[in-house]
Amino acid sequence: MMNRTTLATLFLAAFVALRIAPARAVTASAAPRLHTTAASAGGLDDSLLGRSGKLRVRFLPTTQAKALERALGGIRAATSATGTRTGVASLQVISMVPFTSKIAGRMGMYRMGYWPGERRGARSPGYDNPLGFIEVTPVNQNLQLSEHFVLRDFVTKDQARVWPKYVVLREALIDKLELVIDELHLMGHRVHHLQVMSGFRHPFYNQQGVGKGGRARESRHQYGDASDVFVDDDGDGRMDDLDGDGRITTRDTDVLILAVERVEQAHPELTGGMGRYHATHEHGPFVHVDVRGTPTRWGGA
Description:
five-stranded mixed beta sheet
């Protein structure tokens, strides 16, 4: 039977497997908090599951994914043998399809276009081409990524009949959104559904909205670390009345913006851009949230 020392050793192996991935795949914002002693082996939940403790997947290049899966296999065996309860034992590892698999702007029949860095070079490391893609199929589209989010939440909203689809997505973004939900709870708003209006946008789709007052040519949505969100617990497809005035206005976004600000204050490693957007005839007010690494604000956010 494996003891706590063995369990801690296995966790260290999982940590190393994760940390050897390239920086663009696993950044400091997604890095686990390390527990290496036998006495702390029971603290595995405070590790690979993000700052929120609610992540259920990790996305990695194939080699690193296999290494982490081997380490997690040992943790699962130890958990089964000792009866230790840990969320890490149920963590899923997703192997990414390499970026080089995209040919002539497509992944198979799925049209994605070209990232800015492919044609004129990335303006900074944060705008490098993605390392790879997560394949989305009719079978795995409802994969639980965290407590409140599934894979299809972040899929580009086009080519409805084309499968498989592909997504670029960072765990740090999911983690931040979970922390925002937690913060809203602390603020007295019992939120159960934070709607992702727009998650990943591949360049072909993003380009269709580029222009004055529209999408940025180098939108962070193309890099898997941005989302446009609003609270929609009543399921009507629009922002809920968070400020309690009986109306849906941009003042409701103030509550969401405050929650994001508080998350960034508590977790500066998750700092990013935030923008406020007003309602139109097509949608209600919403807030852009990302984890680009630098604080950026627009739209009165």
